[in-house]
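Suppose a colleague, Dr. K., hands you the sequence of a protein chain of 586 amino acids and asks what its three-dimensional shape might be. Before reaching for any lab equipment, you can write down a predicted structure in token form. Begin with the sequence itself:
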Amino acid sequence: MPVFTPPVVDMLFAIEEAGELARVSSLPDYEEATPDLVTAVLAEAGRFGAEVLAPLNAIGDREGCHLDNGRVTLPNGFAAAYRQFVDGGWNAVPFNPDHGGQGLPWLVATAVQEIWHAANMSFGLIPMLTQGAVECLNEHATPAIKAMFLDKLVSGEWTGTMNLTEPAAGSDVGALRSKAEPDGDRWRIRGQKIFITGGEHDAPSNIIHLVLARVPDAPTGVKGISLFAVPKYLVNPDGSLGRRNDVKCIKIEEKLGIHGSPTCVMAFGEDEGAVGWLLGKENQGLTLMFTMMNNARLAVGLEGIAVGERAYQKAVAYARERVQHVAIINHPDVRRTLLTSRALVEATRALAYYTASRIDISKRHPDADLRAHTHARVELLTPVVKAWGTASGIQVADMAIQVFGGMGYIEESGVAQHLRDARITAIYEGTNGIQAMDLVNRKLLRDGGAAFRDLLNEIRTLDAELAAAGSESCTVIRHALEQAVSAATRAADFIHAGHGGDAALAGAAASPFLELVGITCGGWMMARLALAAHRRMADGADDPFLPAKIATARFFAEALLPKTGALLAAVQAGSGSIQAFRDDWF
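The predicted structure, expressed as tokens, is then:
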């Protein structure tokens, strides 16, 4: 059974069609992102993922990480692989050339990142959080702080972390207690943070922690939080590393999955105080940290998609090999399971790539109004990519175990690891329930639904093209997508009309609403891919890959889009039965 085969052809098709590579490569400074270059980048990333990272995945799961006197050692081979990763320039793909980056679009970087997570999610978490730290520092740090940290973070020689959660402050970030005291042009940080991914390990030469803490006399709650850059090792004026800062790992968590990634309890300032530098202004830390969190939310959605791809590949390979009278891939229920997995992976991937392309447009397009419009689309879709992408990845990993049957429940088969690894993604960077509340409260209700209506109107523009395609499959897709858009419209209207008179409605309806939106957007993406395949075939392309795309899109329309009707009913059920259930009945 193959370890991992990067789906480069599928990815390139999604980049070109869902991500509109031609449009992205026409943006300023992205002209070199041609299909030939992108193909070469994906091929080389795929080789590195398959040959270097994927073989370490099971090793990381078995060995885990080890803590000894404040120092964490990654599983065998991880640190050496990370040095190869940095030497290959992979960490620098999307970043500013002024700091040593390669300046490629986020669209391309997103596809490359998918390969890392599919090959080895525990490894992929290292550059994932580093790229978020780079984005945050690039947006909010002073020139002096950028000069101190940014080049080494861009190269990957140093890594970054995000420090929010505390023992008494989880999703309620406003309850955090870490303190920061001024010390000249620096600050002394004291406090404890938990669940810190990559908080300490032996792959980089330095780790830059982005830490939320309170300054003296700060307001209570989220309005009194500031953000600091706190290095593991202080940096000398010449850029060399100085003494160890007063920050250490005091525990690594024993987890369900991602054993190769150290999840650390970090102690800041147990002695003289950890030296840090303020980012932005005092009491604006949470707003600044959202630069990193939104980056991470899209990346976590991609983790779910990537692990789903890996699990799907294993399920297909096993179904071809396992014989019960005939190879089980011939059994209709197994085929349904595999097709569901395939359709979910392709739809969530396309939506993630589409969103990444809109990040590029929102940052680089010369038209300010279009940049603002596209930014609103990115904000709208971020919680959908995160929550629907991760939920789908978990579902695909679970279905892979089902295809394996009893062997799937045995660790020896290797497929159970994917479900264990993927499970964290629905919790990371704000649980999926929090993402659903964000979609309803901050994205649907805040602007009166304008951005959401704009999205649905764009989906509706495909109707004429689907009708003109003239194929039975496109007719099926067209009608199913039309019904899904209607369900999404009615669900949004119901929430808008009722939330004022029912304070619990948004919370009760948020999760089914997000799933409804995710499936509808997935249907939209699959319709676009089917139309693109039709166009290529009409232009003379003779590749079995193309009719397979159309067939997968039709399956999505027939098997998954109808679920939007049931989800609409769940939204319209409101909060009545949920709120009427007495606490003592649970």
